[in-house]
Amino acid sequence: MDSIYLSKNSLMCVRLLARGAIEACRGILNSYVKNAIIVIRPPGHYAKHNEPIGFYLFNNVPIAVKAY
């Protein structure tokens, strides 16, 4: 974890990013929107289910899928 800069707001930020991914998927699946792109940094796609990797604390894709 030597390449990750954490602050007291890091957890809140990654939760907001995951929520954005959830809402984008929900919008598509409920036909509120035709398509979506989620511009979030870091995207989180490399994080494992039980540990962060590099700059990625949460993996937003499975979070969004599981939440729906």
Automatic annotation (TrEMBL):
Where does this protein chiefly localize?
Answer: nucleus
The GO annotation for biological process reads: epigenetic regulation of gene expression
Which GO-annotated molecular functions does the record name?
histone deacetylase activity, hydrolytic mechanism
Q: Membrane-crossing residues?
A: none
Q: What class of enzyme is it?
A: hydrolase
GO CC annotations, alphabetized: histone deacetylase complex
Query: According to its UniProt record, which protein family does this protein belong to?
Result: Belongs to the histone deacetylase family. HD type 2 subfamily.
- In Swiss-Prot or TrEMBL terms, this protein is called histone deacetylase
Q: Name the lineage.
A: Eukaryota, Fungi, Dikarya, Ascomycota, Pezizomycotina
